[in-house]
Amino acid sequence: MHRATTSVLYPWIVYLCANIHFMFKFSYSLVFILTAFLLSGCNGNNAPASGSSDNTAQSSVAQGLNIVHVKSDSLRTGYLALAREFDRLEENLAKAQENLTADGNALQREVATLQNKAQQGLLSPNQIQAEQQRVARKEQEILQRREIALGSIQKEELELQTKFSEKVQEILQALKEEKGYDYILNQGPGTGVLISDDSHDITQLVLDRLNAAPDPVMDEASSDDEEPEE
Question: How far apart are alpha carbons 180 and 183 in whole angstroms?
Fold first, then answer.
């Protein structure tokens, strides 16, 4: 009947089938700035005056700088409120992916049905054009929903990262003032501090204060958020 119209529909079918599956790539990797706390105690007034005794110089060297470090990876994994928020984001992502994949598979089945009808000559050129436009609109709707869902999750991840970093900075500043630290460094691969003495590690102290906070930093980030549109 209209078997010749198959050649018109087939390239469109191939394109649509090749693009109907969606891949979500979501990185939970976070970068937290936890370094370079220089205190006023490290100024020129602490240097021994010219002509001072050897005992004074030796005492100054023995005292040295008060340097400690934290492990940002351990802070991220050990902060319970942050872990709960990441679990929630992961659940939202999985739910959005499941719904969008189901819709994509349904649309792919529609395309296969149209292909069969076209091959059998059951669709006129006008019908093929109308179906092309209808399916293209549905495909675009799925793509838009995917972008909205992914954008919402990424936005919330950034908010969590920012609030967590601010909370850690507040705690480190308080510890610096309480303990008289000259430097608080971030220890770990890629940080410039690869190996250090565990006696200078204050990670657990910071974690204890994070988890004991009466107002978890994540509450504000999630209180007004709704599940991403799907």
Answer: 9
Task: Name the residue among 114, 132, 128, 135 with its Cα closest to residue 20.
Answer: 135
Q: In one letter, which amino acid is 185?
A: L
- At residue 223, the 3 state secondary structure works out as helix
Which are the contacts of 21, defined by CB distance < 8 A and separation ≥ 6?
101, 104
Rg (CA), the chain: 30
- Give the pair of three-digit tokens for residue 179: 């303990």
For residue 207, the one-letter residue type is L
| Sequence-separated contacts (24+) of 162-168 with Cβ below 8 Å | 163/217, 163/218, 163/220, 163/221, 164/30, 164/32, 164/76, 164/79, 164/82, 164/217, 164/218, 165/32, 165/33, 166/217, 167/210, 167/213, 167/217, 168/32, 168/34, 168/75, 168/206, 168/210
* pTM of the model as a whole: 0.62
- Measured between alpha carbons, how far is 65 from 180 in angstroms, rounded to an integer? 10
Alpha helices in 25-79 (DSSP H): 54-63, 72-78
Give residue-wise pLDDT tens across range 199-221.
Answer: 999 999 999 999 998 765 555 55
Q: How far apart are CA 68 and CA 58, in angstroms?
A: 22
